[in-house]
């Protein structure tokens, strides 16, 4: 990364922040005015010395206030006004910058989150959730920190250099030239530092993301870590990530710490020039004693903000490294586009796959030339060996990925042209790994229809055979389920997820191995529920236990991403192919032949 890319990031940020332009200009004006008022007292000190020393010949006398006492009073009033002005603009710039920082950080995070929600599943597979959280939290906060104080400091350093320079030029152009010789060196140093610091900060942000990724992954998998007694190994891996972060920061600290002493020495040259040359000129009478005072005081005023420049640029660099990450996230292209067209009500639920092919970019495997029609209201079972592509078909139906070839049609309408929300509202999904949200059982059942009445929720829970256990809980529907539903059993979670899908009452219901991870009782319960709920809707179920699908209207055997066999149970048995072989294995008629096993 070069310095130009930090300015590019700033440019992108300013384009993003177009809507805040008025507030940015107002805040900038307040910062400028505050600084001008802030350096004015030094000039007043010079004028005061001039009044005391020169009295009737002073600068103030030339303005019409001849008497020395009167001049002091005038200076008193001016001092009051200047201090009041400085305080007022300090108050205003603080309010404006800090509120801007709050607004912008909140909007950026919200925009980034909303954009990320629209991205396809492939994106989420390429980024860990910890990395995404670190961008939406840490990086956004980094920018907030810069806007809180850094932007103002940067503007004020610039104003100081220009304003002090102007005063020097008026009072003594010769001293001005000498006093300002270090400025180009400082500015060059600042840019050099910025060029060096940029890549280092990009690395720091990268390491923070990795660290956050590891943390969230490990905390999510804490049960696995414990059961494999891998605590020491995981602690070591975390320590390595943490050390990498420390190391990246160490580089940044080394660079930024060197900068301040270098700038100080450069400024010393300017200060000494003013001090000595100004003193000599005052002694020989070519410089007014008040002007000498102003120059000496003002070089001091120049010193502090410039030494602070390193920290400000440091903050700027960190903020721009973060900005780049946030804006890259915000501009990640959405692969799966929303078609926008609505479905004609009532939705019948006919699903048709036509010449559909798709392969995961990372593994190159997927499904090929899928031709399949699921009549409205019928039940289709997808069976096949593990990894054969059953879930992939379901994910494509939910439009989690963009197919390479062919298309899927719902009620004869291409999914690519459909409104994504409508499509997904019409499909209910119960998958093998149930995800429940932190909150109550009620929140989770009503997730797809928050406006549903209590009666409707209870009815859905009854059909899913979940009501019995909910009723027994002391807090009933209001029982908290814990993060990801950890306070419930696997079977209970599965039943809740079925109730949640049923309350949505979708014309198409997908059951992705909904009974694979549950006990016999739950499986029997779900089977009973299924018979009730299959009525009047299209059901696509993925199953390993063939006994659960013998009544399906159609059974499709998927093998290595292709449809190998299709028909009813009896037809497939008669065909004596993959399905029949698997059936014999599962019913115990023969021992499994390894290459033909589904599950
Ligand atoms: N996100 C992914 N990225 C890369 N490859 C994937 C991804 N998801 C699945 N695959 C691969 O695609 C193939 C089909 O996976 P899919 O999940 O559709 O299988 P399945 O038939 O549902 O298997 P199972 O019965 O075990 O659930 C597998 O070989 C799998 O490794």
UniProtKB/TrEMBL annotation:
The chain crosses the membrane at residues 72-93, 151-169, 175-193, 258-280. It is a multi-pass membrane protein. Residues 351-585 form the ABC transporter domain. Its main location: membrane. It is found in: Cell membrane. Residues 25-318 form the ABC transmembrane type-1 domain. The keyword DNA-binding does not apply. CDD domains: ABC_6TM_exporter_like. One of its GO terms (cellular component) is plasma membrane. GO terms for molecular function: ABC-type oligopeptide transporter activity; ATP binding; ATP hydrolysis activity. It comes from the Bacteria. Keywords: ATP-binding, Cell membrane, Membrane, Nucleotide-binding, Transmembrane, Transmembrane helix, Transport. This is ABC transporter.
């Amino acid at each position: 990364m070069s310095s130009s890319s930090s300015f590019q990031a700033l440019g992108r940020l300013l384009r993003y922040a177009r809507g805040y332009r008025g507030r940015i200009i107002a805040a900038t004006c307040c910062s400028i005015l505050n600084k001008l008022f802030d350096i004015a007292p030094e000039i007043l000190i010079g004028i005061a010395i001039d009044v005391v020393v020169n009295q009737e010949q002073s600068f103030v006398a030339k303005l019409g206030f001849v008497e020395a006492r009167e001049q002091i009073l005038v200076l008193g009033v001016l001092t009051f006004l200047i201090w009041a002005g400085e305080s007022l603009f300090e108050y205003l710039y603080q309010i404006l910058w800090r509120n801007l920082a709050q607004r912008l950080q909140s909007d950026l995070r919200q925009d980034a989150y909303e954009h990320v929600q629209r991205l396809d599943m492939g994106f989420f597979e390429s980024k860990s959730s910890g990395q995404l959280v670190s961008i939406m939290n840490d990086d956004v906060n980094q920018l907030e920190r810069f806007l809180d104080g850094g932007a103002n400091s940067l503007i004020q350093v610039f104003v100081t250099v220009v304003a002090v320079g102007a005063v020097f030029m008026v009072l003594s152009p010769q001293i001005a030239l000498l006093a300002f010789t270090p400025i180009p060196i400082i500015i060059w140093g600042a840019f050099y530092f910025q060029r060096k610091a940029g890549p280092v900060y990009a690395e720091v942000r990268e390491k923070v993301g990795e660290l956050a990724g590891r943390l969230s992954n490990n905390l999510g998998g804490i049960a696995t870590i414990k059961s494999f007694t891998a605590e020491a190994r995981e602690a070591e891996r975390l320590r390595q990530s943490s050390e990498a972060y420390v190391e990246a920061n160490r580089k940044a600290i080394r660079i930024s710490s060197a900068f301040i002493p270098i700038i100080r020495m450069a400024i010393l040259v300017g200060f000494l020039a003013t001090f000595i040359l100004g003193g000599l000129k005052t002694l020989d009478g070519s410089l007014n004693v008040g002007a000498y005072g102003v120059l000496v005081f003002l070089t001091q005023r120049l010193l502090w903000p410039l030494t602070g420049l390193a920290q400000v640029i440091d903050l700027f660099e960190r903020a721009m490294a973060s900005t780049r990450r946030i804006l890259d996230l915000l501009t990640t292209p959405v692969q799966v586009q929303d078609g926008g067209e609505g479905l004609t009500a009532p939705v019948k639920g006919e699903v048709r796959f036509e010449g559909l092919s798709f392969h995961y970019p990372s593994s190159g495997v997927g499904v090929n030339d899928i031709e399949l029609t699921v009549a409205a209201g019928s039940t289709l079972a997808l069976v096949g060996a593990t990894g054969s592509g059953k879930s992939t078909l379901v994910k494509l139906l939910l439009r989690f990925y963009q197919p390479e070839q062919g298309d899927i049609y719902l009620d004869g309408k291409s999914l690519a042209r459909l409104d994504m929300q409508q499509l997904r509202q019409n499909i209910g999904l119960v998958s093998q790994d149930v995800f429940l949200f932190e909150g109550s059982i009620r929140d989770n059942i009503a997730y797809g229809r928050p406006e549903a009445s209590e009666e409707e929720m209870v009815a859905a829970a009854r059909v899913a055979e979940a009501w019995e256990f909910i009723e027994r809980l002391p807090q009933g529907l209001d029982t908290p389920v814990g993060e990801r539903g950890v306070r419930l059993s696997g079977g209970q979670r599965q039943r809740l997820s079925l109730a949640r899908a049923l309350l949505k009452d979708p014309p198409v219901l997908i059951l992705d191995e909904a009974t694979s991870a549950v006990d016999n009782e739950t499986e029997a319960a779900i089977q009973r529920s299924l018979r009730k709920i299959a009525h009047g809707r299209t059901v696509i179920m993925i199953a390993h236990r063939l006994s659960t699908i013998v009544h399906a209207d159609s059974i499709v055997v998927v093998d290595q991403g292709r449809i190998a066999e299709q028909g009813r149970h009896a037809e497939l048995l008669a065909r004596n192919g993959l399905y029949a072989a698997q059936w014999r294995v599962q019913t115990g008629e023969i021992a499994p032949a390894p290459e033909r096993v589904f599950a």
